[in-house]
C-alpha cells in the first residue's frame, strides 16, 4: 500500500487510551533489563503480559488525569528548558537531538537513569542516532522563542529571514510543527514545509535572501513565502541537510523569528 496520499494516526494519546497502547505493546514486546522497574509499576495498574487489561471506571478516570498531567508537565518543561538546550548562546534555537552526557540517547548512567531528559527527548523526536556526533550530517534546530525571548504564540504572525549563505551542502528546509503534538499542522494547502527547492517560487529580498512567514493567514504578496499554522501554536524547525563546518563550529548564526506587529 502506498500511503503518500493517506493520513493515518501515529500520535500517542495523552488520555486513558495511552494505557491501552502500553498494554498492547507489553503484550508482544520482550522485556529488557532496564524495563523491569517499569514493568512492576505497570503491573500495579493491571498491565501485565498474558493477562486481560480491564480497568474499571474509577481507574480509567485516574489514568486519564495522569496522562493529561504528564502532557502538561512535558509542555512546561519545553517552555522552561535548561540553557544547555539552546544551540547558540545568543539565539533561541534548540537542537531536536538532545543526547545524554555520553553523547548517546539511553540517558543511562552507572548510578541512575535521567528519566526527565529521556522523556523530553522522545516526546518530540522518535528516531535518533545511537551516538550524536560533534559533526552530524544534518542538524534540526527548533525555534523555542522569538527574538525577544517570548514564547511563540498561536494566531500571531512571525517572520524570519533566511540568508544566502546557509551552511548546507545539500539543502535547507523549514517545517512548522504543532507545538502541542510535535507533528505536522494539516491545512487545505497541505503545506507544512518550505525549502531551498522552493526558492524559484518565493519572493526574494534585494540581497537574494528570503523572508519566510508563519501565521494562520498569508501576508498579502507573500503567499509563496508562507507556512500556515491554522491557529495552532507553532514550532518552526530549520533542517540543515549536509551541514557544513560553519554550522558545526557555530560561526554561522541563524536569525531568530520576530513577531510582526
Averaged pLDDT: 94
What is the CATH topology of the largest domain? Jelly Rolls
In CATH terms, the superfamily of the largest domain is: Domain of unknown function DUF1214, C-terminal domain
| Subunit organisation of the chains | single chain
Our count of domains comes out at 3
CATH class of the largest domain: Mainly Beta
Main structural class: alpha+beta
Indicate the low-confidence ranges by residue numbers: none
Helix content: 10-25%
Please tell me about this protein's structure.
The chain contains five helices and ten strands. The chain is of the alpha+beta class and 261 residues long. The protein folds into three domains: 62 residues, VPA0735-like domain (VPA0735-like fold), CATH 1.10.3360; 131 residues, Sandwich (Jelly Rolls); 34 residues, no CATH class. The strands form two sheets. Strands 1, 2, 4, 5, 6 and 9 form a six-stranded antiparallel sheet that branches. Strands 8-7-3-10 form a four-stranded mixed sheet, with no helix packed on it. A hairpin with a 4-residue loop joins strand 4 and strand 5. Pfam families: DUF1214 (PF06742). This is DUF1214 domain-containing protein. InterPro entries: DUF1214, DUF1214_C_sf.
Characteristics:
261 residues, alpha+beta, VPA0735-like fold, 3 domains, 4-stranded mixed beta sheet, 10 strands
Amino acid at each position: 500500500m502506498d500511503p503518500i496520499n493517506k493520513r493515518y494516526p501515529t500520535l500517542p494519546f495523552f488520555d486513558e487510551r495511552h494505557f491501552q497502547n502500553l498494554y498492547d505493546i507489553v503484550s508482544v514486546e520482550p522485556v529488557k533489563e532496564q524495563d523491569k522497574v517499569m514493568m512492576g509499576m505497570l503491573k500495579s495498574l493491571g498491565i501485565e503480559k498474558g493477562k486481560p487489561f480491564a480497568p474499571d471506571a474509577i481507574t480509567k478516570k485516574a489514568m486519564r488525569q495522569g496522562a493529561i498531567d504528564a502532557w502538561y508537565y512535558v509542555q512546561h518543561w519545553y517552555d522552561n528548558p535548561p540553557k544547555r538546550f539552546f544551540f547558540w548562546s545568543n539565539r533561541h534555537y534548540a537542537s531536536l537531538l538532545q543526547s545524554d552526557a555520553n553523547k548517546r540517547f539511553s540517558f543511562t548512567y552507572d548510578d541512575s537513569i535521567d528519566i526527565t531528559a529521556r522523556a523530553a527527548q522522545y516526546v518530540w523526536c522518535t528516531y535518533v542516532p545511537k551516538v550524536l556526533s560533534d559533526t552530524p550530517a544534518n542538524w534540526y534546530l527548533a525555534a523555542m522563542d522569538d527574538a525577544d525571548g517570548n514564547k511563540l504564540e498561536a494566531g500571531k504572525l512571525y517572520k524570519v529571514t533566511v540568508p544566502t549563505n546557509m551552511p548546507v551542502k545539500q539543502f535547507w528546509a523549514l517545517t512548522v510543527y504543532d507545538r502541542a503534538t510535535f507533528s505536522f499542522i494539516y491545512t487545505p494547502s497541505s503545506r507544512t514545509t518550505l525549502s531551498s527547492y522552493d526558492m524559484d517560487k518565493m519572493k526574494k529580498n534585494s540581497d537574494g535572501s528570503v523572508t519566510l512567514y508563519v501565521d494562520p493567514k498569508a501576508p498579502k504578496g507573500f503567499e509563496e513565502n508562507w507556512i500556515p499554522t491554522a491557529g495552532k501554536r507553532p514550532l518552526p524547525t530549520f533542517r540543515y541537510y549536509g551541514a557544513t563546518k560553519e554550522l558545526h563550529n557555530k560561526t554561522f548564526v541563524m536569525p531568530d523569528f520576530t513577531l510582526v506587529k
